[in-house]
Amino acid sequence: MRHATQHADVATAELDTVLRGGPFHVALRAAIAARGLPLQRVQHHLSRHGVKVGVTSLSYWQQGARRPQRPESLRAVRALEEILQLPDESLIRLLAEAGERSVVQRPAARSYRSLIEASDVLDRLLAELSWSLDGGLHTLGHHERIRIGAHRELAGRESQHIVRAHRDGVDRFVAVHHGDPGCAPERMMVHALENCRTGRVRLDPGTGVLVAELLFGTRLRSGDTFLFRYGVDDGTAGVSREYVRGFGFPGGQYALQVRFDANALPLRCHRFTQLSAAAPRRGRQELPLSGPHRSVHLVEPRVRPGIVGIGWDWE
Question: Would 212 disulfide with which of 90, 102, 201, 226, CB 3.0-4.6 Å?
C-alpha cells in the first residue's frame, strides 16, 4: 500500500511539473495516467459532457502526433480539464503557448489563431452547402499547380482531381481555397475547366476562405471514378511566401508544383510537412529551382492526414 501511495505521489508531482511547463501532450498524458483512466473511459466521460472525440484522436493528442485545433476539439480540451480534475485553463494555456511558439518559429506562416478561426468559418461555409469533408468521394490523385506573379503574389492555382465514389448518387465536389493574409475572396474567380461546372460559391472576407461547388452533371455510383479540373484566380493579397495543403483523410497521390514569374524568382525553396496546424514543422528539404521552367514541386505517393507544403525565401 505504501508503495502504491508513493507511486501516486510521484505521479502527482510529475503532473504538477508538466502542467506548469508543458508541453501539452506530455501534460495530457500525465493527467490521464495520474487519474488511472483508460482512453475508452475518457471518451465516455467526454460524451457525457456532450463532446464527441474518438479514442484514436485522444491517443494522438497524448502522443503529440496531433494537436487539438478544431472548435469541437478545443471544447473537448476544456472538458478534459474538468474530467481530469485539472486547474481551469491549464491545458488550454499549454495549447496556446505551443501555437505561439510555432508561429515564432515560422514567421511566414499564418498564426495558429487565424487557422483556428478559418477552420471554424470553413465548417460554417460547408454546412451552408450541405457538404462534409468526406463528401462520398475518395481521392485517388490530386495534382495542384500554383502560380506566383510578378509582384510575388499568389496569382492563382489549378487543381486536377481523380476521385472514386464510395456511395451512390454523388454529383459534386466542394473546392476550398484559403488565400494569403490580406486577400479579398470577393475579388477571386473560380473557373470550372474540365468535366464540371461552377455552382454555389460562399466566402468569408475576414479569414480569406472561399468554397465553391463543382457540379459533375452526372450522378456517380459507388465504385465509379471521375476526373475533373478547376482553377481559382487570386492575386488579391501581398507577398506570398508559402503554399500549404491540409488532408483530413488518407488518400492517393498528391503532387504540388509552384511556378514563379520570370521577374520574381525566389532565392531558395524548400518542402516541409506538419502533423497538424499547431505541430512543429519537420522533414524540411531544399528544392532546386528549375531554371528553364522556373518551378519546384513535391510528390506524395500516398497522402496521410496532416499538412504538406512548399515555402520560399525572397531574399
Answer: 201
